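Q: My hope is that you can spare some time for a protein that puzzles me. Underneath my words sits a plain record pairing an amino acid chain with its backbone structure tokens. Those tokens are not coordinates but codes from a learned vocabulary of shapes. Thank you; the sequence and its tokens follow:
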Amino acid sequence: MATNGSQFESLDQMADATAAALDQAAASYAFQLFSDKEFRRLLSFDRLSQVEQDRVFNELVVAYVVLVILVLEAPDLRVPDEFRGYLVDLNENIPKAHLDYLRTLGVDTEHLRDWEKLIAMRYDEYAKDRHEVRAAAMKIESSEKVLDLDDLSKIQMIVPVQAVAIGCHHHVCRGDTRGHDDLFKLTLRSLSRFYVEIRVRLEGGKVSPLTRARVALKRIVRRKRTRKRSKR
């Protein structure tokens, strides 16, 4: 991510500022999806109570924030080795950056603790789900051919966004995801755009491998949809 280090007195200050910027980007993407007319139509948004609408928004925000964390700790992130120590520090600052932002909005301490717990809970969940997502993706891909290193690389790259999309969709729908395939695809597309943007910024504009990964991601989703139809 391009950052003008000359304006900061220390790496800690730079990490704080960068974490705040990443958090704001996550919140912005979450709000865009939350405000999307098609998203609201598919969710029957107008029928939801205010409390339920707020819960949906919170789940979206947490999904994008957690995705930032998963990107920063991705083993395949193409950054110089000397940059990885800084990314570790940056990653640790992401939850704090969101809590600091909420604090500026006047959110009280009790609710800040709830947010801290929710971010930690969803991170633990989505990070764990990566293993199942990776296994499922490899099973689908290997059903058609023997996987090579490029295939494995693409699978590794799309795992974080898939895991977050699946988990976020599950929570937004309160576990009842039947009949909500279009809502999932819309959520996945938005998270994928955000994922690509963050990785491109962190990797200094290396977009080609990410483009191939997005193609692979679309193919996997399409196959899942086709298999569901064939089972009916």
User: Anything to note?
Assistant: The helical segments are 11-35, 37-43, 50-72, 81-104, 109-142, 149-172, 181-202, 208-231. Residues 207-216 have pLDDT under 50 and may be disordered.
